[in-house]
Amino acid sequence: MLVAIYQQLGCLSDALTCLAGDQGIPTLGYRRSPTKPAVFATCPGLMAASVDHDYMSDHDVLVLRKGTHGIPVEEYADALRSRLPDSDVTLARTPEAEREEIPDAEIVTGMVLDEELLDRAEAMQLFACAYAGVGHLPLDGLRERGVTVTNASGVHGPNMGEHVLGNILTFTRRFHEGFRRQRNNEWRHYKANELRDSTVTVVGLGAIGQAVVDRLDGFGVETVGVRYTPEKGGPTDEVIGFDEDELHDALARTDYLVLACPLTDETEGLIGSEEFVTLPPEAVLVNVARGPVVDTDDLLTALRSGWIRGAALDVTDPEPLPRDHPLWDLGNVQITPHHAGHTPDYYERLADIVAGNVRRIDETGEYDGLENEVSL
């Protein structure tokens, strides 16, 4: 008698193999990756030959249906499959599929998770959020259930760093004025500036803020970083905290103010009339953080009154920005529709994080100490 065992559910297949071995029955294993050896020799009495055990994942992954940035979510599932060849990566492509698959899923990843779906997630141990922000998730419910949550922090760093640098160079060389004259078929010179010897203040020294500073290297600028824990230092020439006097001192010598911080109680309304008056009149605001970090009414006043030279806004408050909002009509404002986070490599970078955490769980059996773990 020959018993064939499908190597998918590690514990079950090992148990069946042990049982067959104890009875003196030869065993033959089948698995999705036949180049990876089976592990039949771990039980006494087995008749299969002993082989070395290569990496195998005991954990499968459920991918929820919502994508982002117009990129099909199928690409995310494929990226995970390529990194976890021994895991079943299931894409729940419809609401019904999500409801059917989530009760048995220990590891779930996706952009959103509502209360109704969470109530069905009886086995979930990890929710790998595919966004950097997690404020839209039912955090209280996840905490009560003991679910570990990770985010996509760091995925946006390269592209958002480039977006900010593009904004800064646009205002430095006044490309927007050049575009305007081109539309009018107008060959007429205009003044421009140099970035060299400018001071760039970056509020938030996470992955995005650090990417901005990295890309400014070589332009001959002075950089000031603002973070919650200035004692940790950072990649900027100077690092300060959110103390009001320190912040205003930095703003008074800032040519380009880059907001790359999360929206918190401390950062909401951080930049208002007092800060705009403190900035030099040639200063430019670049906001890739969240709209409410800036008081919109005060921003309008500052732009109209010449308190600052201009603003590049990837985020606004309100958002989306209404079609009749006066910000659209100001010549010294550049607006992009929350687009700085877009990159064709989004899912690849995210899959690196999630797959790495799955391997860590396989190795340790624990759902804590993961990369990008969020404190609930």
Account of the 3D structure:
By secondary structure, this protein is α/β, with parallel strands linked by helices. It folds into 3 domains: 3-42, no CATH class; 61-153 and 351-364, NAD(P)-binding Rossmann-like Domain (Rossmann fold), CATH 3.40.50; 157-335, Rossmann fold (3-Layer(aba) Sandwich). Helices cover 32% and strands 15% of the residues. It has helices at 10-22, 73-83, 95-101, 115-120, 139-144, 157-173, 175-183, 207-216, 244-251, 273-278, 296-305, 346-364, and strands at 3-7, 27-31, 61-63, 89-91, 107-110, 126-129, 148-150, 199-203, 222-226, 238-240, 256-259, 284-287, 310-313, 333-335. The strands form 3 sheets. The chain has a 7-stranded parallel β-sheet with strand order 10-9-8-11-12-13-14, with helices on both faces. α10 links the parallel β11 and β12. α2 crosses α12 (346-364) and α6 packs across α8. The model is unreliable at 1-19 and 30-53 (pLDDT under 50).
